[in-house]
């Protein structure tokens, strides 16, 4: 069964310090455009994750998110003691160099108050490395789970796409039958038109020559080959969508061929009913084209 390129998947990994949430969102695209929208993923794991996503999802615009929710103990802020001591030593050295005297303990308190405002003095444990080798197996399993959810979503969407596009191919074939129903009327119309033109010119043609000219004229506007090729293309479309796992790109090429035959039929029609039917066929084909752009 075909898959849509639109999908969504979510999974969680419970780690010692909190909960990691993996989200993957996909839209249609000509190739695999993978966007890792997170700073939590270690650099040495990025290529691995990209390859895993490409293998599982194939084409599409793919956004990969990682959200982190630390538990209460992890979220607690802690002082960076080494940095505080270093700042304090530097400030004392500057004070001695400039012969600045505080005179009481309030001076030291002022120094500490100032130091606490310096960058990175207060650490948040959640900012430290969350994903590491110790918990990578859990994170990797969550990524696999999210990818599976995306594929399940895509399969559900694919069923709806399949039903829509195949029904429209059927509509085109029914409209082609309508074109055939106009054929005899079109021939009679052409014959009447030519005869009337000759009468207006007060010409009495040779019957055999007239029939030859009629045959030549009708051959020029004959659409039998276009009808046969269009039916073949429709069959090829159905064989492809039913028989291939990822038919999206090939279906696009088949749609181009279907459009070519429909357009040629319209240009040769020389009949209002056929031309109106061709417009309906073009409308159905355009809707098929739009839907197939989202088929993997």
Relevant terms:
single chain, 296 residues, alpha+beta, Ribosomal Protein S5, domain 2, 3 domains, two-stranded antiparallel ribbon, 63% helix
- Rg over CA atoms: 36 Å
First-to-last CA distance: 11 Å
Order of helices and strands: EEEHEHEHHEHHHHHH
> Structural class from helices and strands?
alpha+beta
Give the amount of beta strand, in percent.
5-15%
Mean pLDDT, as a whole number? 87
> What is the number of strand segments?
6
The strand order across the widest sheet is 1-2-4-3
Kindly describe this structure.
With about 300 residues, the chain is α+β, with helices and mostly antiparallel strands. It has three domains: about 5-75 and about 130-155, Ribosomal Protein S5, domain 2, CATH 3.30.230; about 80-120, no CATH class; about 160-290, no CATH class. About 65% of the residues lie in helices and about 15% in strands. It has ten helices and six strands, in the order βββαβαβααβαααααα. It has helices spanning about 45-55, 70-75, 80-95, 105-115, 135-180, 185-200, 205-220, 225-245, 250-270, 270-290, and strands spanning about 5-15, 20-25, 30-35, 60-70, 75-80, 120-125. α1 runs parallel beside α5, α5 (about 135-180) packs antiparallel against α8 (about 225-245) and α9 packs antiparallel against α10 (about 270-290). The longest helix has about 45 residues, at about 135-180. The termini are close together.
């Amino acid at each position: 069964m075909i898959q849509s390129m639109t999908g969504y998947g979510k999974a969680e990994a419970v780690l010692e310090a909190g909960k990691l949430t993996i989200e993957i969102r996909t839209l249609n695209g000509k190739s695999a455009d993978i966007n890792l929208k997170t700073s939590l993923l270690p650099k040495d794991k990025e290529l691995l994750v990209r390859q895993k996503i490409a293998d599982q999802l194939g084409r599409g615009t793919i956004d990969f998110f990682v959200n982190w929710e630390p538990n209460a103990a992890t979220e607690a802020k802690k002082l960076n003691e080494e940095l505080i001591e270093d700042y304090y030593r530097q400030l004392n050295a500057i004070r001695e160099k400039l012969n600045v005297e505080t005179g009481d303990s309030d001076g030291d308190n002022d120094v500490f108050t100032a130091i606490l405002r310096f960058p990175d003095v207060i650490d948040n444990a959640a900012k430290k490395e969350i994903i590491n080798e110790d918990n990578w197996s859990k994170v990797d399993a969550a990524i696999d789970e999210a990818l599976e959810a995306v594929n399940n979503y895509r399969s559900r969407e694919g069923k709806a796409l399949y039903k829509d596009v195949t029904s429209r191919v059927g509509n085109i074939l029914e409209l082609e039958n309508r074109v055939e129903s106009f054929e005899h009327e079109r021939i009679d119309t052409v014959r009447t038109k030519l005869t009337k033109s000759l009468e207006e010119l007060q010409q009495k043609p040779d019957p055999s020559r007239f029939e030859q000219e009629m045959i030549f004229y009708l051959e020029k506007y004959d659409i039998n080959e276009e009808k046969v090729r269009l039916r073949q293309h429709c069959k090829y479309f159905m064989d492809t969508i039913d028989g291939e796992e990822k038919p999206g790109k090939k279906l696009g090429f088949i749609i181009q061929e279907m459009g070519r035959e429909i357009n040629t039929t319209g240009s040769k029609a020389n009949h209002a009913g056929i031309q109106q039917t061709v417009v309906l066929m073009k409308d159905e084909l355009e809707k098929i084209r739009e839907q197939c752009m989202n088929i993997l």
